[in-house]
Amino acid sequence: MKFYLKDSGMRIDLDYGELSISGNEDYGYRPFQLMVASIVGCSGSVFRKILEKQRTEIEDLTITAEVERNPKEANRIESISLHYAVKGYHLSKEKLYKNLELSRKNCSMIRSVESSITIEESLETIELSR
């Protein structure tokens, strides 16, 4: 990966497009946003794959992230609380929690930061009927 200096940050050209990174939201994504997005994106993708393999019927999955930062330590990310809202049919909360644990074990982004950032997960189910 090759990053380039720009007026107010850095940029990288990726297959999907250009990504601008800056400490100022007016000029690009803030680094902490990208960190949280990487964790959520990885976790959500792995969780979804596990659900698909087990043929769990979901209509929608949303993940809300709450981030706690420490201003005394360069605004270091201390913890991230992830709340998964799963909308689907015949959902077993127990089975979903087991799948969530499995996805955590297989998410490279969570595994990369788990010794330095506390990551908590919660789950809610929204049962649909046909």
Describe the structure.
Helices cover 33% and strands 39% of the residues. The strands form two sheets. It has a three-stranded antiparallel beta sheet with strand order 1-2-3, with no helix packed on it. It is built from three helices and six strands; from the N terminus they run βββαββααβ. Helix 1 packs across helix 2. The protein has one domain: K homology (KH) domain (GMP Synthetase, Chain A, domain 3, 2-Layer Sandwich), CATH 3.30.300. The protein starts with a strand and ends with a strand. The longest helix has 23 residues, at 31-53. By secondary structure, the chain is of the alpha+beta class. It is elongated and about 55 Å long.
* Proportion in helices: 25-40%
Secondary structural class: alpha+beta
Helix count from the secondary structure assignment: 3
In CATH, what is the class? Alpha Beta
Give the rounded overall mean pLDDT: 95
Say how many strands there are: 6
InterPro entries: KH_dom-like_a/b, OsmC/Ohr_fam, OsmC/Ohrsf
Pfam families: OsmC (PF02566)
Protein name: Osmotically inducible protein C
What is the fold's blueprint, element by element?
Blueprint: E1 3-6, E2 9-14, E3 17-21, H1 31-53, E4 58-70, E5 76-88, H2 93-106, H3 108-113, E6 118-127
Parallel strand pairs: 5-6
Antiparallel strand pairs: 1-2, 2-3, 4-5
Helix pairs in contact: 1-2
Task: Give a quick summary of the entry.
The chain has 130 residues and is α+β, with helices and mostly antiparallel strands.
